[in-house]
């Protein structure tokens, strides 16, 4: 696994939260092929130092991307690119579907059965 340095540009005059800007730039790097599945990202504290932001801002961005399925956190191995943007989009939409179905009273097993019936 190679550790990559992503070129992240932040606009402090933009109303978009800094963590969202950081996440967007990393997402773009993955979509553009600058960061490939399996490649490691620099530690959050290093990214924060380069960007001139708080480490918690970077961690929040990285957790968002993890939740989207784009990044993988492994103890002792750091953070790596887990998937392509397409897979990340599918994971995110799947999460939205599960949340929607649960709000409407469906169990996880019922959701699986519904999806299985579509295949």
TrEMBL record:
One annotated GO molecular function: DNA binding
Gene3D superfamilies: Winged helix-like DNA-binding domain superfamily/Winged helix DNA-binding domain
Source organism per UniProt: Agromyces ramosus
Record's protein name: GntR family transcriptional regulator
Pfam families in the cross-refs: GntR
Keyword field: DNA-binding, Pyridoxal phosphate, Transcription, Transcription regulation
Domain HTH gntR-type: 16-84
Record CDD domains: WHTH_GntR
Span of the signal peptide: none
SMART domains xrefs: HTH_GNTR
């Amino acid at each position: 696994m190679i550790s990559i340095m992503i070129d992240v540009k932040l606009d402090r005059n933009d109303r978009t939260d800094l963590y969202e800007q950081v996440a967007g730039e990393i997402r773009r790097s993955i979509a553009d092929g600058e960061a490939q599945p399996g490649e490691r990202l620099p530690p959050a504290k290093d990214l924060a130092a380069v960007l001139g932001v708080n480490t918690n801002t970077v961690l929040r961005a990285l957790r968002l991307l993890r939740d989207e399925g784009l990044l993988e956190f492994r103890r002792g191995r750091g953070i790596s690119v887990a998937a392509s943007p397409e897979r990340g989009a599918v994971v995110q939409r799947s999460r939205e579907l599960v949340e929607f179905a649960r709000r409407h009273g469906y169990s996880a097993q019922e959701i699986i059965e519904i999806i299985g019936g579509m295949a």
